[in-house]
Amino acid sequence: MHITKDLVAASATPLVLGILAEGESYGYAILKQVNELSGGQLEWTDGLLYPLLHRLERLGHVESAWETPPGSRRRKYYRITAQGRTELAEQRRQWAAVVDALRGVWSSTQSIKPITTPAWEAGR
Amino acid sequence: MTAASDNDLEGQIAEWRAYMHRRRELHHTDAEELEDHIRSRITELTEAGLRADEAFLIAVKRMGSLDELSREFAREHSERLWKQLVLPGEPDASAAARSRRELPVMVLCAAIAALAIKVPGWFGLDISGDDDDFYARNVSLFALPALAAYFAWQRRVGLRVIGVLALLFLLGAVAANAYPLAGDSQTLVLTAIHLPLALWLVVGVAYVGGDWRSDRRRMDFIRFTGEWLIYFTLLGLGGGVLTAFTAGTFDAIGLNAEGFIESWLLPCGAMAAVIVSAWLVEAKQSVIENMAPVLTRVFTPLFAATLLAFLLVIVLGLLLYAISARELTARPGLFDRLQLALVVSALIIDVMVLLAITGRITEWGFSPNKTAALGENVILLTNLAWSAWLFLGFVRGRMPFARLEHWQTRYMIVYAVWAWTVVLAFPPVFDFA
Asked: Fewest beta carbons within 10 Å, which of B12, B94, B244, B400?
Protein backbone atom coordinates (compact mmCIF):
# COMPACT_ATOMS: atom_id res chain seq x y z
CA MET A 1 0.00 0.00 0.00
CA HIS A 2 1.25 3.45 -0.89
CA ILE A 3 0.67 6.19 1.67
CA THR A 4 0.36 9.64 0.14
CA LYS A 5 3.04 12.26 0.56
CA ASP A 6 0.77 14.57 2.54
CA LEU A 7 -0.02 11.93 5.13
CA VAL A 8 3.65 11.02 5.45
CA ALA A 9 4.55 14.67 5.94
CA ALA A 10 1.77 15.27 8.47
CA SER A 11 2.66 12.26 10.59
CA ALA A 12 6.40 12.85 10.51
CA THR A 13 6.65 15.29 13.41
CA PRO A 14 4.68 13.24 15.97
CA LEU A 15 6.51 10.09 14.89
CA VAL A 16 9.95 11.61 15.34
CA LEU A 17 9.03 13.28 18.63
CA GLY A 18 7.45 10.05 19.86
CA ILE A 19 10.56 8.04 19.05
CA LEU A 20 12.83 10.62 20.70
CA ALA A 21 10.56 10.65 23.77
CA GLU A 22 11.80 7.12 24.47
CA GLY A 23 15.45 8.18 24.45
CA GLU A 24 18.04 10.04 22.43
CA SER A 25 18.74 8.76 18.96
CA TYR A 26 20.33 9.63 15.62
CA GLY A 27 18.98 9.98 12.10
CA TYR A 28 19.51 6.51 10.76
CA ALA A 29 18.20 4.80 13.91
CA ILE A 30 15.11 7.02 13.91
CA LEU A 31 14.42 6.09 10.31
CA LYS A 32 14.78 2.37 11.04
CA GLN A 33 12.44 2.66 13.97
CA VAL A 34 9.81 4.43 11.85
CA ASN A 35 10.14 1.63 9.37
CA GLU A 36 9.66 -1.04 12.06
CA LEU A 37 6.76 0.77 13.73
CA SER A 38 4.86 1.05 10.47
CA GLY A 39 5.68 -2.46 9.36
CA GLY A 40 7.44 -1.03 6.34
CA GLN A 41 4.32 0.85 5.22
CA LEU A 42 5.64 4.33 5.83
CA GLU A 43 8.34 5.06 3.31
CA TRP A 44 10.37 8.15 3.84
CA THR A 45 12.98 9.54 1.53
CA ASP A 46 15.97 9.10 3.81
CA GLY A 47 17.48 12.54 3.30
CA LEU A 48 14.33 14.46 4.12
CA LEU A 49 14.42 13.36 7.74
CA TYR A 50 17.34 15.70 8.38
CA PRO A 51 15.71 19.00 7.38
CA LEU A 52 12.80 17.93 9.60
CA LEU A 53 15.13 17.28 12.55
CA HIS A 54 16.79 20.64 11.99
CA ARG A 55 13.41 22.34 11.93
CA LEU A 56 12.39 20.67 15.20
CA GLU A 57 15.69 21.79 16.66
CA ARG A 58 15.17 25.37 15.54
CA LEU A 59 11.68 25.33 17.07
CA GLY A 60 13.21 24.09 20.32
CA HIS A 61 11.42 20.72 20.37
CA VAL A 62 14.67 18.77 20.23
CA GLU A 63 18.31 19.49 20.92
CA SER A 64 21.33 17.93 19.30
CA ALA A 65 24.94 17.11 20.12
CA TRP A 66 27.80 15.47 18.25
CA GLU A 67 28.94 12.40 20.15
CA THR A 68 31.36 9.59 19.49
CA PRO A 69 30.16 6.37 21.08
CA PRO A 70 32.99 3.90 21.79
CA GLY A 71 33.87 1.89 18.71
CA SER A 72 31.75 3.99 16.41
CA ARG A 73 31.77 7.06 14.18
CA ARG A 74 31.08 10.60 15.28
CA ARG A 75 27.35 11.06 15.17
CA LYS A 76 24.79 13.77 15.72
CA TYR A 77 22.39 12.67 18.43
CA TYR A 78 19.01 14.24 18.98
CA ARG A 79 17.18 14.46 22.27
CA ILE A 80 13.66 15.70 23.05
CA THR A 81 13.21 18.81 25.19
CA ALA A 82 10.48 19.59 27.72
CA GLN A 83 8.92 21.81 25.09
CA GLY A 84 9.08 18.93 22.65
CA ARG A 85 7.18 16.70 25.07
CA THR A 86 4.46 19.34 25.39
CA GLU A 87 4.30 19.53 21.60
CA LEU A 88 4.08 15.73 21.40
CA ALA A 89 1.16 15.68 23.85
CA GLU A 90 -0.57 18.38 21.84
CA GLN A 91 -0.04 16.50 18.56
CA ARG A 92 -1.36 13.36 20.19
CA ARG A 93 -4.59 15.11 21.18
CA GLN A 94 -5.01 16.44 17.66
CA TRP A 95 -4.38 13.09 16.05
CA ALA A 96 -6.81 11.39 18.47
CA ALA A 97 -9.50 13.86 17.39
CA VAL A 98 -8.77 13.16 13.74
CA VAL A 99 -8.82 9.41 14.28
CA ASP A 100 -12.11 9.61 16.20
CA ALA A 101 -13.66 11.65 13.43
CA LEU A 102 -12.46 9.17 10.84
CA ARG A 103 -13.85 6.24 12.87
CA GLY A 104 -17.22 7.97 12.85
CA VAL A 105 -17.03 8.32 9.10
CA TRP A 106 -16.02 4.70 8.56
CA SER A 107 -18.88 3.37 10.69
CA SER A 108 -21.55 5.62 9.19
CA THR A 109 -20.61 4.87 5.60
CA GLN A 110 -21.35 1.14 5.65
CA SER A 111 -20.43 0.65 2.04
CA ILE A 112 -16.78 1.15 2.81
CA LYS A 113 -15.44 -1.65 4.91
CA PRO A 114 -12.66 -0.67 7.27
CA ILE A 115 -9.64 -2.42 5.85
CA THR A 116 -6.84 -1.95 8.31
CA THR A 117 -6.02 0.36 11.12
CA PRO A 118 -4.58 3.62 9.81
CA ALA A 119 -0.88 3.47 9.28
CA TRP A 120 0.01 6.00 11.94
CA GLU A 121 -1.57 3.79 14.57
CA ALA A 122 0.13 0.64 13.41
CA GLY A 123 2.92 0.70 15.91
CA ARG A 124 1.34 2.57 18.79
CA MET B 1 34.34 -7.36 1.82
CA THR B 2 37.78 -7.21 0.22
CA ALA B 3 40.26 -4.41 0.65
CA ALA B 4 39.88 -3.38 -3.00
CA SER B 5 36.13 -2.96 -2.81
CA ASP B 6 36.65 -1.13 0.48
CA ASN B 7 38.87 1.37 -1.32
CA ASP B 8 36.37 1.72 -4.12
CA LEU B 9 33.65 2.45 -1.62
CA GLU B 10 35.74 5.09 0.15
CA GLY B 11 36.42 6.70 -3.23
CA GLN B 12 32.74 6.74 -4.09
CA ILE B 13 31.81 8.21 -0.72
CA ALA B 14 34.52 10.87 -1.07
CA GLU B 15 33.13 11.79 -4.49
CA TRP B 16 29.63 11.97 -3.10
CA ARG B 17 30.86 14.14 -0.23
CA ALA B 18 32.60 16.54 -2.63
CA TYR B 19 29.37 16.76 -4.57
CA MET B 20 27.48 17.66 -1.38
CA HIS B 21 30.02 20.31 -0.46
CA ARG B 22 29.34 22.16 -3.66
CA ARG B 23 25.83 22.91 -2.44
CA ARG B 24 25.67 26.21 -0.64
CA GLU B 25 22.54 25.16 1.25
CA LEU B 26 24.32 22.25 2.87
CA HIS B 27 26.78 23.05 5.57
CA HIS B 28 29.78 20.94 6.32
CA THR B 29 28.13 19.42 9.39
CA ASP B 30 25.00 18.60 7.42
CA ALA B 31 27.07 16.74 4.87
CA GLU B 32 28.79 14.89 7.70
CA GLU B 33 25.47 13.93 9.21
CA LEU B 34 24.20 12.67 5.85
CA GLU B 35 27.45 10.79 5.29
CA ASP B 36 26.98 8.98 8.57
CA HIS B 37 23.53 8.01 7.36
CA ILE B 38 24.85 6.71 4.04
CA ARG B 39 27.50 4.67 5.81
CA SER B 40 24.97 3.16 8.21
CA ARG B 41 22.77 2.20 5.29
CA ILE B 42 25.69 0.68 3.36
CA THR B 43 26.77 -1.35 6.39
CA GLU B 44 23.28 -2.75 6.77
CA LEU B 45 22.98 -3.60 3.09
CA THR B 46 26.40 -5.26 2.85
CA GLU B 47 25.60 -7.31 5.95
CA ALA B 48 22.47 -8.46 4.13
CA GLY B 49 24.74 -9.77 1.37
CA LEU B 50 24.99 -6.95 -1.16
CA ARG B 51 28.28 -5.91 -2.74
CA ALA B 52 29.70 -2.57 -1.58
CA ASP B 53 29.05 -0.74 -4.85
CA GLU B 54 25.49 -2.01 -5.02
CA ALA B 55 24.91 -0.96 -1.45
CA PHE B 56 26.34 2.47 -2.21
CA LEU B 57 23.98 2.95 -5.16
CA ILE B 58 20.94 1.97 -3.13
CA ALA B 59 21.97 4.12 -0.18
CA VAL B 60 22.43 7.19 -2.39
CA LYS B 61 19.17 6.51 -4.21
CA ARG B 62 17.28 6.19 -0.93
CA MET B 63 18.76 9.46 0.26
CA GLY B 64 16.61 11.14 -2.36
CA SER B 65 17.55 13.49 -5.15
CA LEU B 66 20.12 16.05 -4.14
CA ASP B 67 18.04 18.82 -5.67
CA GLU B 68 15.08 17.96 -3.52
CA LEU B 69 17.29 17.60 -0.48
CA SER B 70 18.97 20.96 -1.10
CA ARG B 71 15.59 22.56 -1.54
CA GLU B 72 14.38 21.24 1.80
CA PHE B 73 17.59 22.33 3.51
CA ALA B 74 17.31 25.74 1.87
CA ARG B 75 13.73 26.08 3.07
CA GLU B 76 14.77 25.20 6.59
CA HIS B 77 17.97 27.25 6.58
CA SER B 78 17.00 30.09 4.28
CA GLU B 79 19.39 32.41 6.10
CA ARG B 80 22.33 30.48 4.68
CA LEU B 81 21.59 31.66 1.16
CA TRP B 82 22.04 35.28 2.00
CA LYS B 83 24.47 35.13 4.86
CA GLN B 84 27.48 34.09 2.83
CA LEU B 85 30.00 36.55 4.14
CA VAL B 86 32.63 38.51 2.36
CA LEU B 87 34.91 35.73 1.20
CA PRO B 88 33.01 32.59 0.25
CA GLY B 89 35.12 29.47 0.01
CA GLU B 90 36.53 28.78 -3.44
CA PRO B 91 36.37 25.21 -4.64
CA ASP B 92 39.75 24.74 -6.31
CA ALA B 93 43.15 25.48 -4.86
CA SER B 94 44.60 27.93 -7.39
CA ALA B 95 41.51 30.10 -7.28
CA ALA B 96 41.60 29.95 -3.51
CA ALA B 97 45.24 31.08 -3.44
CA ARG B 98 44.33 33.93 -5.75
CA SER B 99 41.36 34.97 -3.65
CA ARG B 100 43.62 35.01 -0.60
CA ARG B 101 45.91 37.45 -2.41
CA GLU B 102 42.89 39.44 -3.52
CA LEU B 103 42.46 41.15 -0.17
CA PRO B 104 46.06 42.43 0.14
CA VAL B 105 46.05 43.61 -3.48
CA MET B 106 42.79 45.43 -2.87
CA VAL B 107 44.19 47.04 0.29
CA LEU B 108 47.31 48.06 -1.63
CA CYS B 109 45.27 49.65 -4.42
CA ALA B 110 43.08 51.43 -1.86
CA ALA B 111 46.19 52.73 -0.09
CA ILE B 112 47.62 53.99 -3.37
CA ALA B 113 44.37 55.77 -4.18
CA ALA B 114 44.24 57.28 -0.69
CA LEU B 115 47.82 58.49 -0.88
CA ALA B 116 47.50 59.76 -4.45
CA ILE B 117 45.12 62.49 -3.40
CA LYS B 118 47.67 63.74 -0.87
CA VAL B 119 50.51 63.95 -3.40
CA PRO B 120 49.54 67.33 -4.94
CA GLY B 121 49.40 68.70 -1.41
CA TRP B 122 53.15 68.12 -1.07
CA PHE B 123 53.67 70.40 -4.06
CA GLY B 124 51.78 73.21 -2.39
CA LEU B 125 48.33 72.63 -3.81
CA ASP B 126 45.94 73.16 -0.93
CA ILE B 127 42.82 71.01 -1.06
CA SER B 128 40.57 73.30 0.97
CA GLY B 129 42.03 76.61 -0.18
CA ASP B 130 42.61 78.39 -3.47
CA ASP B 131 43.50 75.32 -5.51
CA ASP B 132 40.15 73.62 -5.23
CA ASP B 133 39.68 73.95 -8.99
CA PHE B 134 42.74 71.76 -9.47
CA TYR B 135 41.12 69.07 -7.32
CA ALA B 136 37.78 69.53 -9.08
CA ARG B 137 39.44 68.79 -12.41
CA ASN B 138 41.57 65.93 -11.23
CA VAL B 139 39.51 64.14 -8.61
CA SER B 140 38.91 61.12 -10.81
CA LEU B 141 42.61 60.80 -11.59
CA PHE B 142 43.47 59.75 -8.04
CA ALA B 143 41.30 56.71 -7.45
CA LEU B 144 40.34 55.44 -10.89
CA PRO B 145 43.84 54.49 -12.10
CA ALA B 146 44.24 52.43 -8.93
CA LEU B 147 40.87 50.82 -9.58
CA ALA B 148 41.82 50.06 -13.16
CA ALA B 149 45.09 48.59 -11.93
CA TYR B 150 43.19 46.38 -9.49
CA PHE B 151 41.00 45.03 -12.27
CA ALA B 152 43.94 44.69 -14.61
CA TRP B 153 45.60 42.49 -11.98
CA GLN B 154 42.46 40.57 -11.18
CA ARG B 155 41.53 39.89 -14.81
CA ARG B 156 45.16 39.23 -15.80
CA VAL B 157 44.84 41.48 -18.82
CA GLY B 158 47.55 41.52 -21.48
CA LEU B 159 50.30 44.11 -21.85
CA ARG B 160 48.58 45.69 -24.83
CA VAL B 161 45.45 46.45 -22.83
CA ILE B 162 47.53 47.81 -19.97
CA GLY B 163 49.25 50.10 -22.46
CA VAL B 164 45.92 51.33 -23.80
CA LEU B 165 44.65 51.92 -20.27
CA ALA B 166 47.75 53.89 -19.32
CA LEU B 167 47.50 55.96 -22.49
CA LEU B 168 43.86 56.81 -21.87
CA PHE B 169 44.54 57.88 -18.30
CA LEU B 170 47.47 59.96 -19.49
CA LEU B 171 45.24 61.55 -22.11
CA GLY B 172 42.68 62.40 -19.45
CA ALA B 173 45.33 63.90 -17.20
CA VAL B 174 46.71 66.04 -20.02
CA ALA B 175 43.26 67.20 -21.11
CA ALA B 176 42.31 68.19 -17.60
CA ASN B 177 45.47 70.13 -16.88
CA ALA B 178 47.02 71.36 -20.14
CA TYR B 179 44.05 73.43 -21.25
CA PRO B 180 44.09 76.90 -19.76
CA LEU B 181 40.78 76.62 -17.94
CA ALA B 182 39.89 79.56 -15.73
CA GLY B 183 38.68 78.84 -12.22
CA ASP B 184 35.15 80.09 -12.90
CA SER B 185 34.76 78.91 -16.50
CA GLN B 186 32.00 76.60 -17.59
CA THR B 187 34.41 74.31 -19.34
CA LEU B 188 36.08 73.66 -16.02
CA VAL B 189 32.79 72.52 -14.55
CA LEU B 190 32.15 70.41 -17.63
CA THR B 191 35.58 68.84 -17.35
CA ALA B 192 35.05 68.18 -13.65
CA ILE B 193 31.83 66.33 -14.44
CA HIS B 194 32.84 64.50 -17.59
CA LEU B 195 36.36 63.40 -16.91
CA PRO B 196 35.20 61.01 -14.14
CA LEU B 197 32.62 59.55 -16.52
CA ALA B 198 35.18 59.14 -19.30
CA LEU B 199 37.68 57.54 -16.97
CA TRP B 200 35.02 55.34 -15.41
CA LEU B 201 34.46 53.87 -18.87
CA VAL B 202 38.20 53.35 -19.14
CA VAL B 203 37.94 51.41 -15.89
CA GLY B 204 35.24 49.47 -17.69
CA VAL B 205 37.82 48.34 -20.25
CA ALA B 206 39.90 46.96 -17.39
CA TYR B 207 36.79 45.46 -15.79
CA VAL B 208 35.91 43.45 -18.86
CA GLY B 209 39.53 42.36 -19.11
CA GLY B 210 40.08 44.14 -22.42
CA ASP B 211 37.16 42.30 -24.00
CA TRP B 212 35.23 45.50 -24.55
CA ARG B 213 33.45 44.41 -27.69
CA SER B 214 31.44 41.72 -25.90
CA ASP B 215 27.88 42.82 -25.15
CA ARG B 216 27.58 40.42 -22.27
CA ARG B 217 30.69 41.78 -20.58
CA ARG B 218 29.49 45.32 -21.12
CA MET B 219 26.22 44.44 -19.40
CA ASP B 220 28.29 43.04 -16.52
CA PHE B 221 30.03 46.36 -16.25
CA ILE B 222 26.73 48.25 -16.19
CA ARG B 223 25.49 45.96 -13.45
CA PHE B 224 28.76 46.44 -11.63
CA THR B 225 28.40 50.22 -11.88
CA GLY B 226 24.98 50.14 -10.26
CA GLU B 227 26.07 47.91 -7.40
CA TRP B 228 29.28 49.84 -6.95
CA LEU B 229 27.25 53.03 -6.52
CA ILE B 230 25.11 51.40 -3.83
CA TYR B 231 28.11 50.11 -1.90
CA PHE B 232 29.92 53.41 -2.25
CA THR B 233 26.93 55.30 -0.86
CA LEU B 234 26.55 52.87 2.03
CA LEU B 235 30.24 53.07 2.85
CA GLY B 236 29.94 56.85 2.72
CA LEU B 237 27.04 56.80 5.17
CA GLY B 238 28.79 54.41 7.54
CA GLY B 239 31.99 56.40 7.25
CA GLY B 240 30.08 59.57 8.06
CA VAL B 241 28.72 58.04 11.26
CA LEU B 242 32.16 56.82 12.26
CA THR B 243 33.68 60.22 11.51
CA ALA B 244 31.07 62.06 13.52
CA PHE B 245 31.62 59.63 16.38
CA THR B 246 35.38 60.09 16.33
CA ALA B 247 35.09 63.88 16.04
CA GLY B 248 32.72 63.84 18.99
CA THR B 249 35.10 61.87 21.18
CA PHE B 250 37.98 64.17 20.31
CA ASP B 251 35.79 67.17 20.98
CA ALA B 252 35.06 65.81 24.45
CA ILE B 253 38.71 66.06 25.41
CA GLY B 254 39.13 69.46 23.81
CA LEU B 255 41.07 68.29 20.76
CA ASN B 256 39.92 69.77 17.48
CA ALA B 257 40.01 66.99 14.92
CA GLU B 258 38.34 68.95 12.14
CA GLY B 259 41.59 69.79 10.39
CA PHE B 260 42.62 66.17 10.33
CA ILE B 261 39.21 65.04 9.12
CA GLU B 262 39.09 67.62 6.35
CA SER B 263 42.58 67.20 5.01
CA TRP B 264 43.13 63.47 5.60
CA LEU B 265 40.16 61.39 6.64
CA LEU B 266 37.62 62.69 4.13
CA PRO B 267 39.68 62.76 0.91
CA CYS B 268 41.69 59.61 1.64
CA GLY B 269 38.64 57.75 2.93
CA ALA B 270 36.62 58.63 -0.16
CA MET B 271 39.39 57.51 -2.52
CA ALA B 272 39.89 54.24 -0.66
CA ALA B 273 36.12 53.68 -0.60
CA VAL B 274 36.11 53.72 -4.42
CA ILE B 275 38.36 50.66 -4.43
CA VAL B 276 36.76 48.93 -1.45
CA SER B 277 33.28 49.26 -2.98
CA ALA B 278 34.52 47.72 -6.21
CA TRP B 279 36.06 44.86 -4.27
CA LEU B 280 32.86 44.30 -2.31
CA VAL B 281 30.84 44.11 -5.51
CA GLU B 282 33.34 41.64 -6.95
CA ALA B 283 33.42 39.49 -3.83
CA LYS B 284 29.66 39.39 -3.64
CA GLN B 285 28.50 39.29 -7.22
CA SER B 286 27.47 35.64 -7.30
CA VAL B 287 25.45 35.73 -4.12
CA ILE B 288 22.10 37.22 -3.33
CA GLU B 289 23.12 39.36 -0.46
CA ASN B 290 21.63 41.61 2.09
CA MET B 291 23.72 44.61 2.93
CA ALA B 292 23.75 44.50 6.68
CA PRO B 293 26.21 41.62 7.17
CA VAL B 294 28.60 43.09 4.63
CA LEU B 295 28.57 46.49 6.24
CA THR B 296 28.95 44.89 9.64
CA ARG B 297 31.98 43.05 8.37
CA VAL B 298 33.50 46.27 7.05
CA PHE B 299 32.71 48.53 9.97
CA THR B 300 32.99 46.24 12.97
CA PRO B 301 36.80 46.33 12.97
CA LEU B 302 36.82 50.10 12.45
CA PHE B 303 34.36 50.73 15.25
CA ALA B 304 36.07 48.24 17.51
CA ALA B 305 39.40 49.98 16.96
CA THR B 306 37.83 53.37 17.63
CA LEU B 307 36.17 52.14 20.79
CA LEU B 308 39.27 50.39 22.04
CA ALA B 309 41.84 52.97 21.12
CA PHE B 310 39.94 56.12 21.90
CA LEU B 311 36.92 55.74 24.05
CA LEU B 312 38.23 53.70 26.96
CA VAL B 313 41.54 55.49 27.11
CA ILE B 314 39.74 58.82 26.90
CA VAL B 315 37.37 57.88 29.71
CA LEU B 316 40.28 56.84 31.84
CA GLY B 317 42.10 60.03 30.87
CA LEU B 318 39.11 62.16 31.82
CA LEU B 319 38.89 60.37 35.14
CA LEU B 320 42.59 60.79 35.86
CA TYR B 321 42.61 64.48 34.97
CA ALA B 322 39.48 65.13 36.95
CA ILE B 323 41.12 63.45 39.90
CA SER B 324 44.37 65.30 39.51
CA ALA B 325 42.61 68.65 39.37
CA ARG B 326 40.23 68.01 42.24
CA GLU B 327 40.25 69.55 45.65
CA LEU B 328 40.69 66.56 47.91
CA THR B 329 38.37 67.72 50.64
CA ALA B 330 35.57 69.16 48.49
CA ARG B 331 32.11 67.65 48.95
CA PRO B 332 30.73 65.42 46.17
CA GLY B 333 28.71 67.41 43.64
CA LEU B 334 26.79 67.00 40.43
CA PHE B 335 29.97 66.75 38.39
CA ASP B 336 31.11 63.74 40.41
CA ARG B 337 27.84 62.00 39.73
CA LEU B 338 28.32 62.66 36.03
CA GLN B 339 31.79 61.19 36.23
CA LEU B 340 30.40 58.13 37.90
CA ALA B 341 27.88 57.74 35.08
CA LEU B 342 30.72 58.09 32.58
CA VAL B 343 32.81 55.45 34.31
CA VAL B 344 29.88 53.04 34.53
CA SER B 345 29.04 53.42 30.83
CA ALA B 346 32.68 52.90 29.90
CA LEU B 347 32.59 49.82 32.10
CA ILE B 348 29.61 48.45 30.20
CA ILE B 349 31.28 49.09 26.86
CA ASP B 350 34.45 47.44 28.08
CA VAL B 351 32.54 44.35 29.17
CA MET B 352 31.01 44.15 25.70
CA VAL B 353 34.40 44.54 24.04
CA LEU B 354 35.82 41.87 26.31
CA LEU B 355 33.00 39.49 25.46
CA ALA B 356 33.60 40.10 21.75
CA ILE B 357 37.33 39.49 22.11
CA THR B 358 36.79 36.37 24.18
CA GLY B 359 34.35 35.13 21.58
CA ARG B 360 36.88 35.63 18.83
CA ILE B 361 39.62 33.98 20.82
CA THR B 362 37.53 30.92 21.63
CA GLU B 363 36.59 30.69 17.99
CA TRP B 364 39.96 31.28 16.34
CA GLY B 365 42.50 30.89 19.10
CA PHE B 366 45.04 33.32 20.48
CA SER B 367 46.94 35.77 18.33
CA PRO B 368 49.33 38.47 19.57
CA ASN B 369 46.88 41.26 18.75
CA LYS B 370 43.90 39.61 20.34
CA THR B 371 45.85 38.66 23.43
CA ALA B 372 47.18 42.18 23.81
CA ALA B 373 43.70 43.62 23.34
CA LEU B 374 42.32 41.13 25.85
CA GLY B 375 45.00 41.96 28.41
CA GLU B 376 44.59 45.70 28.01
CA ASN B 377 40.85 45.44 28.38
CA VAL B 378 41.08 43.27 31.45
CA ILE B 379 43.41 45.87 32.97
CA LEU B 380 41.11 48.74 32.05
CA LEU B 381 38.10 46.81 33.25
CA THR B 382 39.69 46.13 36.62
CA ASN B 383 40.66 49.75 37.00
CA LEU B 384 37.28 51.08 35.97
CA ALA B 385 35.33 48.58 38.03
CA TRP B 386 37.17 49.37 41.24
CA SER B 387 37.08 53.10 40.36
CA ALA B 388 33.33 52.91 39.96
CA TRP B 389 33.03 51.20 43.33
CA LEU B 390 35.20 53.77 45.07
CA PHE B 391 33.44 56.59 43.27
CA LEU B 392 30.07 55.28 44.37
CA GLY B 393 31.27 55.18 47.95
CA PHE B 394 32.53 58.74 47.61
CA VAL B 395 29.35 60.10 46.03
CA ARG B 396 27.31 58.52 48.82
CA GLY B 397 29.64 60.13 51.31
CA ARG B 398 31.06 56.92 52.77
CA MET B 399 34.62 57.13 51.48
CA PRO B 400 37.17 59.86 51.19
CA PHE B 401 38.17 60.94 47.71
CA ALA B 402 41.77 60.19 48.48
CA ARG B 403 41.05 56.47 48.28
CA LEU B 404 40.24 56.85 44.62
CA GLU B 405 43.32 58.91 43.97
CA HIS B 406 45.43 56.40 45.79
CA TRP B 407 43.95 53.56 43.72
CA GLN B 408 44.73 55.32 40.45
CA THR B 409 48.29 56.16 41.35
CA ARG B 410 49.07 52.69 42.64
CA TYR B 411 47.53 51.16 39.54
CA MET B 412 50.17 52.76 37.33
CA ILE B 413 52.55 49.94 38.15
CA VAL B 414 50.11 47.52 36.48
CA TYR B 415 50.31 49.49 33.25
CA ALA B 416 54.09 49.42 33.39
CA VAL B 417 54.23 45.69 34.04
CA TRP B 418 51.80 44.96 31.23
CA ALA B 419 53.52 47.21 28.70
CA TRP B 420 56.87 45.60 29.40
CA THR B 421 55.34 42.15 29.23
CA VAL B 422 53.97 42.89 25.79
CA VAL B 423 57.30 44.27 24.62
CA LEU B 424 59.54 41.61 26.13
CA ALA B 425 57.46 38.45 26.42
CA PHE B 426 54.97 38.56 23.56
CA PRO B 427 57.38 38.22 20.62
CA PRO B 428 59.04 35.01 21.85
CA VAL B 429 55.75 33.59 23.18
CA PHE B 430 54.06 34.02 19.81
CA ASP B 431 57.10 32.91 17.80
CA PHE B 432 57.60 36.44 16.50
CA ALA B 433 54.38 36.15 14.52
From this structure: B94
- Contacts B31 to A, Cβ<8 Å: none
At B419 the three-state DSSP class reads helix
**Cβ of B53: how many Cβ atoms within 10 Å?**
13
Quick check: B28 contacting A, CB < 8 Å? Answer: no
B383-393 tens-digit pLDDT: 888 888 888 88
Q: Would you say residue B419 lies in a domain?
A: yes
- Quote ipTM for the complex: 0.76
Q: Are residues B135 and B61 in the same domain?
A: no
Interface test with B, best of A44, A50, A56, A75 (most B CBs within 10 A): A50
**HEC profile for A53-108?**
HHHHHHHCCEEEEEECCCCCCCEEEEEECHHHHHHHHHHHHHHHHHHHHHHHHHHH
Numbered residues of chain A with Cβ closer than 8 Å to any chain B Cβ: 26-28, 31, 45-48, 50-51, 54-55, 58, 66, 73-76
| pLDDT tens by residue, B23-67 | 766 777 888 888 888 888 899 899 988 888 888 888 888 888 777
In a domain, B89, yes or no: no
